[in-house]
Write a structure and sequence with these properties.
Number of strands: 6
Helix content: 25-40%
Oligomer: single chain
Largest sheet: 6 strands, mixed
Radius of gyration: 15 Å
Distance between the termini: 20 Å
Structural class: alpha/beta
């Protein structure tokens, strides 16, 4: 099956995410799509990763994204790019490094909680950052994310009263 055929099939079966009613902030947290082996330090997306990034964009088509945030690595930026482009926004790079790794998730959560009610944000991270981001946002420890998992997304609904609801699904 050609990449184009696979992409068309994927897009035809992907259904847009209908976000549950909420009075706060919706944050969709995902791991980057499948990476290539073209660069050990900063790989691009593999062909199936590019297809997955398009599927993510199709899944979030009706979500009304206000922000898309990714780390500085190509694989996260390229995963967020189709959804951001469809929403008419740029991908914001939020760098993670040795100096901020310990507080990255909590700093990001504080930034997101300060957004206006009704905001919707896509956050693209890594297998070793996504669970911490979900926990920092929700106070709930998520399931560990294995290195081989690329299709999970977690919707964290930050309620106006400070509570959080977590919905985990696949795309």
């Amino acid at each position: 099956m050609s990449l184009l055929t696979l992409l068309m099939l994927t897009l035809s079966i992907a259904s847009p995410t209908a976000l549950p009613a909420h009075d706060g902030i919706a944050v969709v947290v995902v791991r980057h799509a499948e990476k290539d082996d073209d660069d050990k330090l900063d790989p691009s997306l593999a062909g199936n990763g590019e297809v997955r990034a398009q599927a993510l964009a199709a899944t979030l088509a009706g979500a009304g994204l206000d922000r898309a945030i990714a780390t500085q690595f190509r694989r996260t930026r390229d995963t967020a790019a189709p959804a951001a482009a469809a929403a008419g926004i740029d991908v914001e790079v939020r760098e993670i490094n040795g100096d901020n790794a310990a507080t990255y998730a909590s700093d990001l959560a504080a930034d997101l909680r300060a957004m206006p009610a009704g905001s919707t944000v896509l956050v693209v991270g890594h297998s070793n950052t996504v669970p911490g981001i979900v926990e920092a946002l929700s106070g709930q420890a998520p399931e560990a994310m294995p290195e081989t998992e690329y299709d999970r997304y977690t919707l964290v609904l930050l309620d106006a009263d400070g509570g959080a609801r977590v919905i985990t699904s696949r795309y």
